[in-house]
């Protein structure tokens, strides 16, 4: 039986480990926290998952919260003009997304892995550990997110665009937010405040039940960038509410009575989006393969990270199984990553586009969503399958051709 080591028990690591286990591999997961520690720990993401990736989880029988998690059939977009009045304000049909707090999801998946007979080694892993253990495994996959172990993987200068964080992030998990009256059903809602940043509303499921997850994406140094040094969760939430009152006043009344779900239901920080080379050389000559955030870390503005992690886990699983008994050498690792990159490059391109000020043709496209439901729906769906943006978002000619095709432009 082939022996595989997965380092890290996050989205990609656990989905891959559980998939390999189901195919009869001898799988070991090394990670730093027990399921109970994950469950009782700090939130780590807003983790909205789109329909295509939810289908991947369901195919592995990992959709364990279907009955409790709020279903999000729509995504909303609001952009105020210089007078503060929204000139883009629509809901697009994105076909059912959802967000299960990673504290809930990863702790449960990790327990499931152990219950099914997986080997679990609990301690913080160093490069030296990986070097040592790699002698005993046919393949080592490093799924350690944005932690220290990424330093094993060199930055890919050609594929990486940014050299510093593009947004400073502040997340709050709260109970008590009312729905937008026009929605009726639940929706994720994105407020884009030009030149300042973004404010997201995302209904989800956390440790204490259904909740609303609010994400502030602040352009560094701008007026939303208010969380540096804030340690008190109540102060964090008070600042978030104040920003909503000032920059998304249409959402303030439905939010002002909300309270944090728990003391650790807040998160703030920043990181630089990056693409890394997928193969790491270990000190004693072995090699390891990076997956998901280790090799492609996107800003959360477009909600692509956990979705890419799910996609990467599915691609790597298929590549491992198809490879049979042949050695997992450098060429195979590079090819496996390229199969994933074929998807991830679209996530990176879309995320890079959204981080920059929108050009005129994109503003035109988004504004057309007010009158033309087809535009709103297509944008919403393409967030799930970002390769479609190639057909109508990036180049003015293609955008205009699409707007003409649906009668939104003469
Ligand atoms: C604020 C924020 C909001 C986000 N919102 C979204 C969203 O809405 N939708 C979306 O798709 N994505 C979102 N993301 C991104 C998403 O959370 C990540 O891309 C995804 O979780 C990455 O999965 P992963 O498997 O690469 O790593 P992770 O899920 O981060 O898992 C890494 C694992 O490795 C372990 N680990 C790390 N270092 C070590 C070590 N040295 N030893 C042992 N174990 C180690 C960690 O404990 C963890 O278990 C968001 C991210 C942030 C920061």
Would you mind describing this structure in some detail?
The chain is of the alpha/beta class and 410 residues long. The protein folds into 3 domains: 3-59 and 101-162 and 272-354, FAD/NAD(P)-binding domain (3-Layer(bba) Sandwich); 72-99 and 167-269, 2-Layer Sandwich (D-Amino Acid Oxidase, Chain A, domain 2), CATH 3.30.9; 358-405, no CATH class. It is built from 12 helices and 16 strands. The structure holds flavin-adenine dinucleotide. Flavin-adenine dinucleotide binds at residues 8-13, 30-33, 45-48, 124-125, 143-145, 147-149, 169, 171, 215, 267, 292-293, 300, 303-307, 309.
CATH architecture grouping of the largest domain? 3-Layer(bba) Sandwich
Structural class: alpha/beta
Distance between the termini: 63 Å
CATH topology of the largest domain: FAD/NAD(P)-binding domain
Low-confidence stretches: none
What integer value in Å does the Rg equal?
21 Å
Helix content: 25-40%
Ligands in the model, by name, code or SMILES, are:
flavin-adenine dinucleotide
Number of domains: 3
Number of helices: 12
Question: What labels describe this entry?
Answer:
single chain; 410 residues; alpha/beta; FAD/NAD(P)-binding domain; D-Amino Acid Oxidase, Chain A, domain 2; six-stranded mixed β-sheet; binds flavin-adenine dinucleotide
Can you give me a brief rundown of this structure?
The chain is of the alpha/beta class. Helices cover 35% and strands 22% of the residues. The protein contains 12 helices and 16 strands.
């Amino acid at each position: 039986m082939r022996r595989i080591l997965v380092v890290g028990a996050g989205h990609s690591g656990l989905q891959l480990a559980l998939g390999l286990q189901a195919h009869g591999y001898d799988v070991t997961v090394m990670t730093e926290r027990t399921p109970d520690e994950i469950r009782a720990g700090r939130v780590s993401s807003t983790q909205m998952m789109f329909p295509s990736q939810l289908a991947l989880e369901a195919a592995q029988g990992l959709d364990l919260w279907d009955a409790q998690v709020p279903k999000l059939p729509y995504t909303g977009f609001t952009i105020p003009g210089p007078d503060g009045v929204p000139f883009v304000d629509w809901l697009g049909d994105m076909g059912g997304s959802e967000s299960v707090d990673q504290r809930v999801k990863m702790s449960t998946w990790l327990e499931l892995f152990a219950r099914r007979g997986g080997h679990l080694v609990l301690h913080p892993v160093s490069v030296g550990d990986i070097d040592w253990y790699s002698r005993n495994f046919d393949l080592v996959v490093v799924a350690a997110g944005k932690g220290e172990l990424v330093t094993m993987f060199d930055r890919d200068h050609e594929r990486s665009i940014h050299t510093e964080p593009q947004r400073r992030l502040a997340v709050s998990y709260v109970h008590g937010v009312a729905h937008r009256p026009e929605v009726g059903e639940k929706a994720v809602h994105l407020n884009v405040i030009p030149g300042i940043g973004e404010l997201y509303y995302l209904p989800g499921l956390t440790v204490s039940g259904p909740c609303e997850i609010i994400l502030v994406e602040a352009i560094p140094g701008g007026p939303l960038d208010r969380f540096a040094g804030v340690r008190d969760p109540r102060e964090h939430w008070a600042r978030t509410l104040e920003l909503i009152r000032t920059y998304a006043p249409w959402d303030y009344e439905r939010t002002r009575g909300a309270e944090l779900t728990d003391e650790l239901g807040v998160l703030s920080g920043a990181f630089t989006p990056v693409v890394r080379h997928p193969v790491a050389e270990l000190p004693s000559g072995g090699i390891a393969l990076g997956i998901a955030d280790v090799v492609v870390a996107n800003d959360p503005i477009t909600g692509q990270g956990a979705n890419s992690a799910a996609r990467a886990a599915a691609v790597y699983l298929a590549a491992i199984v198809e490879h049979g008994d042949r050695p997992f050498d450098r060429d195979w690792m590079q090819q496996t990553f390229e199969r994933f990159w074929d998807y991830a490059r679209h996530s990176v391109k879309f995320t890079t586009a959204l981080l920059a000020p929108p050009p005129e043709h994109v503003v035109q496209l988004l504004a057309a969503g007010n009158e033309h439901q087809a535009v709103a729906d297509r944008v919403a769906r393409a967030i799930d399958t970002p390769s479609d943006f190639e057909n109508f978002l990036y180049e003015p000619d293609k955008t205009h051709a699409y707007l003409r095709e649906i009668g939104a432009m003469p």
